[in-house]
Amino acid sequence: MKAVVFHEFGGPEKLRYEDAPEPKINETEALIRVRACALNHLDIWARGGTRGERIPMPHISGSDISGEIAKVGNLVKDHNLGDKVVIAPGISDGTCEYCTSGWDSLCEQYRIIGYETQGGYAEYVSVPAQNILSIPDKLTFEEAASVPLVFLTAWHMLTTRSHLTAGETVLVWGAGSGVGSAAIQVAKVLGARVIATAGNDEKLEKARELGADWTINHHSQDVPAEVKRVTNGKKANVVFDHIGQATWEKSMRSMAPGGRLVNCGVTSGGKAEIDIRYIFVRQFSLMGSYMGGRGELLKVLSFFEDGRLKPVVDSVYPLNQAASAQSRMEKSEHFGKIVLKV
Ligand SMILES: [Zn+2]
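A: This is the predicted complex of the input protein with zinc ion.
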């Protein structure tokens, strides 16, 4: 089969479009003919060698996969060849105390498909049959592939972690990212008011189209001052962050008393200084978030049936242009998901 593979860590030039062996399946797995695979920042970290010991080499990235079932193992029931499917990106043992209470991503055995296993930048991928989900009727392969990881992450951050409720205000950093564009929509479904930031006017306009009530240009405007202004001095109850170092101090200054900061990533770096006085006097909560549970993914997917949530596809590249697609993501030129068509 054709696949995009890297044999050593480094820049986008390490991605090679080449022939690779078709994956084998065991009796509980299925072989998927990949039709679309969306990019995530995780792919760039994997290629760059961050936590490289977790990456099977040579490596095929790609955690957000849609396609058709091409083959199933002997023990796999309820799936037919040719079914159109989307793949849940998390694998866990399903039996430990975390898995059985809905906290799959805390499982000792938790792995992300396409990061800690071989992924969907390829014509075929093997996945555990229990990770197969049907594609919501309205969605194309490209749209379906752009949903799982970011909507699961945004849902877990805003519901299970920070308990965002109707009438509260959330500050969403980086609305142009996949997870930011998902967060705006999830927050609106929950009945919250949304302040979204982005780096240019075109992205701010798109954020408003997705439902953001106010937008702030984080390059040219003072974010904490603007948050204070648009909320009539009340500030944000929840800050939704995936940027880390560059936004940390501004997030602290943007939070209302009792505010919750929830973070799922550090695209700008992972070191920050904390003035503990902010935390105890204003009774802030700082929360980490990583992926989410299978039940949460099923719940968030149900909102695509009635159109209350919509995939945000920035652009579609052919598989052999994966390096260009990743470069677009690294330069933050995108709004929503960049998808490879296979
Ligand atoms: Zn488990």
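Residues 92-93, 95-96, 98-99, 107, 109 surround zinc ion (CB under 6 Å). The CA atoms of residues 40 and 63 lie 8 Å apart.
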